[in-house]
Amino acid sequence: MTFSILVFLLLFISIKCSADHVTDSFINCLTIRSRNFPITGIVYAPNNSSFSSVYHAYIRNPRFNNSTRAKPSLIITPTHVSHIQNAIVCAKKHGMQMRTRCGGHDYEGLSYLSFEDTTPFFILDMFNLRSIDINIEQETALVQTGATLGEVYYRIAEKSNTHGLPAGVCPTVAIGGHCSGAGYGNMIRKFGLTVDLIQDAELIDVNGRLLDRESMGEELFWAITGGGGASFGVIISFLFKLVRVPPQVTFFNLERTSEDDILNIANNWFQVANKLDNNLFIRMTFNVINNIEGIKTVRATFPSLFLGNTSTLMSLMNKCFPELGLQDSDCVEMSWVESTLVYAGFPVGTSLDALLSRSQQSERDRPFKIKSDFLKSPISKHGMESIFNKMKELKNQMITFNPLGGRMNEISEFAKPYPHRAGNLAKIEYETYWNDTGTEAENQYLESTRLMYEHMTPYVSENPREAFFNYRDLDLGVNYNGENSYEEGKVYGVRYWKEVNFNRLVMVKSVVDPHNFFRNEQGIPTIWSKFQDSASFSNHG
Ligand SMILES: Cc1cc2nc3c(=O)[nH]c(=O)nc-3n(C[C@H](O)[C@H](O)[C@H](O)COP(=O)(O)OP(=O)(O)OC[C@H]3O[C@@H](n4cnc5c(N)ncnc54)[C@H](O)[C@@H]3O)c2cc1C
Ligand SMILES: *[C@@H]1O[C@H](CO)[C@@H](O)[C@H](O)[C@H]1NC(C)=O
Ligand SMILES: *[C@@H]1O[C@H](CO)[C@@H](O)[C@H](O)[C@H]1NC(C)=O
Ligand SMILES: *[C@@H]1O[C@H](CO)[C@@H](O)[C@H](O)[C@H]1NC(C)=O
Ligand SMILES: *[C@@H]1O[C@H](CO)[C@@H](O)[C@H](O)[C@H]1NC(C)=O
Ligand SMILES: *[C@@H]1O[C@H](CO)[C@@H](O)[C@H](O)[C@H]1NC(C)=O
Ligand SMILES: *[C@@H]1O[C@H](CO)[C@@H](O)[C@H](O)[C@H]1NC(C)=O
């Protein structure tokens, strides 16, 4: 007994020491290679008093505050591209792994935690690399990946009140993860995804080379505009084509609490939301509240953006969607940049400086779990009733329907890795937030979300049941311990990208990173692992 504890301790100490040894050799290598641009002040080891605050600064889901997954041995905060090139070369040489983090919004914490406990890893934290260069003559934005969406919106508005970038609705989300994962926002029906507007990109590959679109080639460029950056390299910047927006747009957000009304409105929403004028985006969100009698009831909200003025909007709504009951007085006209704040939940009149804040809105600072689905056809009233009943039975369920259609129908499903275009009515997002701490509470809420998802099966896409890659969900499958097996990868891969695009991503990966240095629990596997899979079968047996 005592003997086995001793053996265990010795084993533990030797693993620990070799990990420290790896880290120290890595730092040495980095120091030597970075003589021209010294690494002073950019490397944080766990024995440094600032390590914890740097580590936590970009954990956007407190669910992972106390995670039992492997944590980084180092955080590197590059201030120069050469730091990244050297970090990759030294990491390969000394057996370190890495995770690139930009905004830290990954729903499953993959940019700062790892399932691999045998290989030490560092976080490459990109927050220092966030320059934004807006060129109004060319109508472009050259943006380093550490910038947040809010910073980009703010810098565009500094130069022009008639330009915008179609991207996500949360200002603290960063360009790196968001744009390499597709980018969904409230102008999608008019302009498509953020990736549909990317013209060029800079990436550092597994050999430490800095490449642009021309030198990386169209296949790799295609892959990093929707297949995620983390499987292919470190993306330094994207060049976006800006879009033209009117000087004034119109925002409204209606709330309805009578379930009969809601069922009727939802019924009509399913008929029109993806067919309305492309300038109009009406989101539909349901959650459960207690009414004055203390009885559980469903509440619906409709946060919406119209790229035009109130009078045009009213005539459209009266013609196409009178059931919603929109009034002139519900509508607020404002500049597009103001609408990005208001849509994110800030009160009308909030100073634009709020877009520059890199810290999370406090209400979001609670543990959460998110899942997604794609809706191909309307859900009947009867179906919605059963969904509402399920929501009331479960804990803290919130369901949002995001309309598609419009421009999305005009772009081929092979143009970018994201395949959920024509034929989709809406993207569904399931959100569960909770306040209680501890794993017991967490497991209850996770279970609730999974039961809700199960209940939705008859209403949503099937074979495959599609999912949105930017809404990362480890329930869809995981590649453990860096194996990145083709068979395991295919399980989540076909759901995020469908078969044709997934296989194309696998081919790109196999060529540009054949030894799978850039990996994570939901990375793109190489085709080589397909042969390995069958080989290792006999090994295991
Ligand atoms: C509050 C909130 C609101 C959101 N709203 C939206 C929305 O409106 N629309 C939408 O589409 N999505 C939305 N998302 C999802 C979001 O787009 C993704 O979580 C996205 O991946 C976040 O990017 P990030 O850089 O902030 O996250 P990170 O956690 O830093 O990165 C996410 C992934 O990308 C990789 N990565 C990051 N930067 C790079 C890089 N430079 N090179 C290579 N790989 C990189 C990471 O390694 C990780 O795998 C939201 C998320 C949250 C938490
Ligand atoms: C912690 O690391 C940072 C970044 O390398 C460095 O600037 C700082 O001096 C270190 N602090 C201590 C107490 O060593
Ligand atoms: C802190 O940790 C780093 C990385 O392991 C190591 O190189 C350094 O010597 C440590 N510093 C102290 C004061 O222990
Ligand atoms: C998570 O940790 C950070 C840093 O320690 C802290 O600021 C935050 O309040 C924590 N959140 C929760 C929900 O524990
Ligand atoms: C609203 O916009 C329409 C179309 O651009 C325009 O014809 C109309 O004059 C505008 N109405 C007001 C009140 O500004
Ligand atoms: C959870 O916390 C949020 C934000 O602090 C608060 O608005 C909400 O009422 C709380 N919910 C419950 C069920 O306690
Ligand atoms: C993490 O642990 C700390 C200390 O036990 C606790 O205060 C905190 O609430 C926990 N955070 C979460 C998100 O569970």
Automatic annotation (TrEMBL):
Keywords: Disulfide bond, FAD, Flavoprotein, Glycoprotein, Signal. Residues 68-245 form the FAD-binding PCMH-type domain. InterPro entries: BBE (IPR012951), FAD-bd_PCMH (IPR016166), FAD-bd_PCMH-like_sf (IPR036318), FAD-bd_PCMH_sub1 (IPR016167), FAD-bd_PCMH_sub2 (IPR016169), Oxid_FAD_bind_N (IPR006094). One of its GO terms (molecular function) is FAD binding. PROSITE patterns: FAD_PCMH. Its cofactor is FAD. SUPFAM superfamilies: FAD-binding/transporter-associated domain-like. Residues 1-19 form the signal peptide. Pfam families: BBE (PF08031), FAD_binding_4 (PF01565). Belongs to the oxygen-dependent FAD-linked oxidoreductase family. This is Berberine/berberine-like, FAD-binding, type 2. It comes from Artemisia annua. The lineage of its organism: Eukaryota, Viridiplantae, Streptophyta, Embryophyta, Tracheophyta.
